[in-house]
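User: Here's a protein and a ligand (protoporphyrin IX containing FE). What would the complex look like?
Assistant: Let me lay out the input and then the predicted complex.
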Amino acid sequence: MSSAVAVSANTLKLAIPIGAGVISLAYLCAKLFNNENARTEYENEKMIPKVSLREGDSTHDSEYNEDPDAFLLKCEQTYGPVFQIQYLNQTLSVVSGPTMAREIHMYEDLSFRDSVEHMTGYRAFIQSVIKSHKDVNTTIHYQLIRECVSTKLSSFTPEIIERMALTLEQQFGSSEGKEPKLVERPLVALQNVIAATIAQIFMGSEIAENAEVLQTFINCTHDFGLILSQTGKTRDTKKILRTKAQYGYLNAMHKHRQVLVEAAEPIVEQRRQQERLASEQGVEYDRPHDVLQTMLDNVEEYGFVDLEDICGHLILLILSSMHTTLEAGMNVLFYLAAFSDTIQPLYEEIESLFDEQAKGRGEQRQRHREKGTLSSFENTDLDPLLDRKISEFVIKKAVKLDSFLKEILRYRIARLGSSHLARNDVMLSTGHVIRKGENVIVNMRSVHQDKVHGVDLTEFRPWRFVGKNSGAAKASKDFMTFGLGKFTCPGRFLAVHDLKILAALVVTKYSNLVPQDEKKQLGMLASPLIYSSETGLYVTSRHNSHG
Ligand code: HEM
């Protein structure tokens, strides 16, 4: 088992929950308010215990921020699975343990979306960029991701690898000789890599090369981040009203949508022409398989109004995917740097899978030669040049890679998260009642440090999940990075696939990653999307043929 060499996990333990917790709470929790009119009396109702304040404190902020894990553990042990704290100027009902956390995700009347809306007013923004599916309970994006991406994920693999490898080289480059190369703005560099990769899947290769479109992917995500983080220390009604106006009728996103429309129009026309031509010639049209094409092919079934509406929905998919994948991608880079003794085992795993892959492909070529079905393999699927390249086979079989990623996602999670707003009174199985209009939040410490995950739960152990047969994309009551239940993130399979390909490309391309400013490294592990805390990254190339 690897141990941390560059950063002690104990130091991390302190850094992560504070940064991630504050950010998550800032936009995912809503202030409790009373709604006496709708009050239902329950015979067996239990009062939610209020956590007592430390002497001299008027809220729980300081005690939580000093050591979130210790504070939450103490609360669980003293008060049981449901308790109330005063944090960020709010009264929060907190539930603990995988079973209670799952329960919160199962009630129709507890809504994650309503909670985010209550805190940020984001719905006005979303509804102003689309013309169809404005119903607050719509599940169209779940359907789209499932049908256009998840069910055919492996067909995207070669182009994801190609696009990511190309943009990694363009954005991060290679070092010469033994001297490492400084990537001054790794966040900006990775933004470009992730934008190009997601654009490839959503809109196809021509559009993924359009610089203006890529900038739009980046800018609209940045603009949306401003809405989500605008709440500051507590819910601010004035700010929310301003947001509703700005993102309703004054929505700057309309210009981002227009960029997509203008880029898509000629491509759509060109594809229609090619399809007509193929039909005239009686040959099968080689249909592009990006999300845009599937949306166009099923426009009536999906109920889209026009290309502008389609591009509006694409903007919403970009917002769900870019920010989250970028943040986790930055984690991948900086965990590799902080826990630098993980790089070599990950590299060796991939090298050994290359050996296995080359052997299998060699045998296939031999069979072709024997049968006389194929003698030259150049530019075919069995081209020997591809024997030692990252592929679906390698990504699927790389168990250390999967474990490394899952451990990052387990470890870095905000200690309080997945806030849900009650649409009606809800009595929990414990007898505690969450009243209509109140928020309940999950104690993720108790979920992601549950004993089911083994020992040393407060430490980063990259190989924790090896042999556990529980992939990084699998949502469960003890792994809630992607939510749980009916609304579990539909993009998790793509996200995990992209992140594993990113990590595989990085460890085969570079033998070492070192942050330019060691002091800022902790911030990059906890909240990597904060520009002011960004630090450069030194990369040392392997100088082999895989990059
Ligand atoms: C590491 C990357 C990602 C993380 C951590 C993440 C996490 C989440 C979480 C926690 C939710 C809320 C689940 C709930 O309601 O309980 C969510 C929803 C969602 N995610 Fe992801 N996600 C990631 C990547 C992606 C990607 C790549 C896509 C698209 C391809 C995507 C699309 C969506 C959509 C469409 C929703 C539903 C939004 C709504 O309509 O309410 N996500 N995600």
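Summary: Residues 9-541 form a domain with the Cytochrome p450 fold (CATH 1.10.630.10).
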